[in-house]
Amino acid sequence: MSEHDVQREVSELQAKSATAARIFDLRRIIGGLFVLYGIIVTIAGINPSDASLDKSEGVNINLWTGLGMLILGIFFLLWLKLKPAAPVRVDEPEE
Question: For 48-81, how does the pLDDT look when each residue is reduced to its tens digit (9 = 90+)?
Fold first, then answer.
């Protein structure tokens, strides 16, 4: 293999590594899960039963928890959008 081929392969691997780092950023995973669960819990809290309200002393805990989870999930996703992960840089070895 020539040095040019090696450099090309290294560049391709660096691009794949940066893409994988962006895909598996924890902010994306945490934010997505909080938004998903927040939607589910908020829907459960829209029409609470009398028994669940009695357990929580009149507070619609599912609604408030679901809204809090939605806000937290949106925060994580906005954070990811406004400050994306920096690409991984590999220094060239000196000869």
Answer: 988 989 998 999 999 999 999 999 999 999 999 8
Tokens, residue 67: 């809204």
Sorted by sequence, the CB contacts under 8 Å of residue 37 that are 6+ apart come out as: 66, 69, 73
Q: By three-state DSSP, how is residue 33 classified? A: helix
Question: Tokens 């060239």 correspond to what residue?
Answer: 92
Give the CA diameter of the chain: 75
Amino acid at position 10, single letter? V
| pTM of the model as a whole | 0.68
Q: What is the full DSSP assignment across 2-63?
A: -HHHHHHHHHHHHHHHHHHHHHT-HHHHHHHHHHHHHHHHHHHHHS--HHHHHHTTT--HHH
Q: Residues 64, 56: contact at Cβ < 8 Å?
A: no
